[in-house]
Amino acid sequence: GLLEREELAQKIKSAKQNYFEDANKPGRWLSYKLRKERQCKKINHLINQQGQICYDSGEKKKIVREYYESLYYQKKVQEEEIQQYLQKANLPRIPKDVE
């Protein structure tokens, strides 16, 4: 699936970079700079909810998944609470003849 495609794309990118590295001297310098830049962008570790530092890629995936699950979690809101809020907000109403 998606993971296999990402791995294949990474292998192709790596093969292209290897070719680029061996091509010429300016290319080697540029590939060195690009490799350094790519290493700087990589996330080496994450801190879980218990405050422990995790280096394992499986653990990092779990931490990210849990973070986004909690970020986008929506609690159930009762309809009564919505009605009370709207009454307190005192919003203007659309006249019946306009509907």
Annotation keywords:
elongated, 99 residues, 2 domains, 4% strand, mainly alpha
Topology of this protein?
Layout: H1 2-23, H2 25-41, E1 46-47, E2 53-54, H3 57-71, H4 79-89
Antiparallel strand pairs: 1-2
How confident is the prediction overall: mean pLDDT? Answer: 82
Helix content class? 55-70%
Uncertain ranges:
none
Kindly provide the radius of gyration, computed on alpha-carbon positions and rounded to a whole number of angstroms.
Answer: 26 Å
Give the overall form.
elongated
Q: Strand-residue fraction?
A: under 5%
Strand order of the largest sheet: 1-2
For the biggest sheet, the summary is: 2 strands, antiparallel
What is the oligomer described by this structure? single chain
SSE pattern: HHEEHH
Please provide a written account of the structure.
The chain has helices at 2-23, 25-41, 57-71, 79-89; strands at residues 46-47, 53-54. With 99 residues, it is mainly alpha-helical. It folds into two domains: 1-42; 45-75, no CATH class. Strands 1-2 form a two-stranded antiparallel ribbon.
